[in-house]
Amino acid sequence: MGARILVTGGAGYIGSHVVKALGKRGFNVLTVDNLSTGHDWAVLSGELVVCDLLDKEKLREVFSVFRPEAVIHFAASIIVPESVKLPLQYYTNNVVGTLNLLNVMREHGVKKFIFSSTAAVYGIPADIPIKEETPLNPINPYGSSKATVERVLKDMSHASDIDYVALRYFNVAGADPEGELGEAKESATHLITMCVRTAAGIRPYLNIFGTDYPTPDGTCVRDYIHVSDLAEAHIAALEYLLDGGSSDVFNCGYGRGYSVLEVVKIAKKVTGVDFPVEYADRRPGDPPALVAHAQKIRDRLGWQPRYDDLEYIIATAWQWEKKRVTILL
């Protein structure tokens, strides 16, 4: 059995894909999740302990029994418009929860940490594509909460022998190519998920928020990365740390941006459904464009994405959505 890896939020969308990938690589995995948005059936490798990161005493018990060698931390609130409405909830879940986790790690001598960060830490960057050296200037509480944790990690690594990797995700999409996992939250708000749910008739129409952004067609531009490629980025980061790598930050994206209207057009092609669209005002907290400069992770960690194709990403999401309906109904 390989190294013992504790995964927080491993019952959620991205976390469950990483847990599956860890299991396939022979790691000994324990998932810690409060199941507020995750699902126990999505944990396909190792055991699941239902625990909230705000419950520090239970977290201590988990560490004492499992004795992890590294922690991969996903557990967080992630919806940008919701963070604007509920900032205290986001800072509590995302910052206080992480501080609890880091303190318990320190108490138990765990020195390897992988953090689920986000392109939202950049805010509205001056240059596209965005390099890791770009100053952090988040424009919503979600991004601010993640930037705060990154600051903590940087300070902590300077003051101790804990090493970390922060992975700044761009727009994660798609589903497990083997059909076992995908986005299962009813409250999911990501564009590609909304497209396939509208195509499946689960939603009456797709909202497009804002058509007056300073982009070629007036809609937001994003860099979409397949969730399984992102899972492999976590494996690469974990192996890097276990091999003695020092603390670092990496963008996770493909380096190509698509506008909302481009995604909708391709989603209609892939699904074969001309689903209805309604236009609405901009949502608070949405930057016009987020596209990764993602060469560093390829060069430093040897990450090689396999699914850099928007039609394929949408196709896996579509296949999962048709299956999800049968699982949850």
UniProtKB/TrEMBL annotation:
<keyword id="KW-0413">Isomerase</keyword>
<dbReference type="Pfam" id="PF01370">
    <property type="entry name" value="Epimerase"/>
</dbReference>
<comment type="similarity">
    <text>Belongs to the NAD(P)-dependent epimerase/dehydratase family.</text>
</comment>
<dbReference type="InterPro" id="IPR036291">
    <property type="entry name" value="NAD(P)-bd_dom_sf"/>
</dbReference>
<protein>
    <recommendedName>
        <fullName>UDP-glucose 4-epimerase</fullName>
        <ecNumber>5.1.3.2</ecNumber>
    </recommendedName>
</protein>
<comment type="pathway">
    <text>Carbohydrate metabolism; galactose metabolism.</text>
</comment>
<dbReference type="GO" id="GO:0003978">
    <property type="term" value="F:UDP-glucose 4-epimerase activity"/>
</dbReference>
<dbReference type="GO" id="GO:0033499">
    <property type="term" value="P:galactose catabolic process via UDP-galactose, Leloir pathway"/>
</dbReference>
<keyword id="KW-0299">Galactose metabolism</keyword>
<dbReference type="InterPro" id="IPR005886">
    <property type="entry name" value="UDP_G4E"/>
</dbReference>
<keyword id="KW-0119">Carbohydrate metabolism</keyword>
<feature type="domain" description="NAD-dependent epimerase/dehydratase">
    <location>
        <begin position="5"/>
        <end position="253"/>
    </location>
</feature>
<keyword id="KW-0520">NAD</keyword>
<comment type="subunit">
    <text>Homodimer.</text>
</comment>
<dbReference type="InterPro" id="IPR001509">
    <property type="entry name" value="Epimerase_deHydtase"/>
</dbReference>
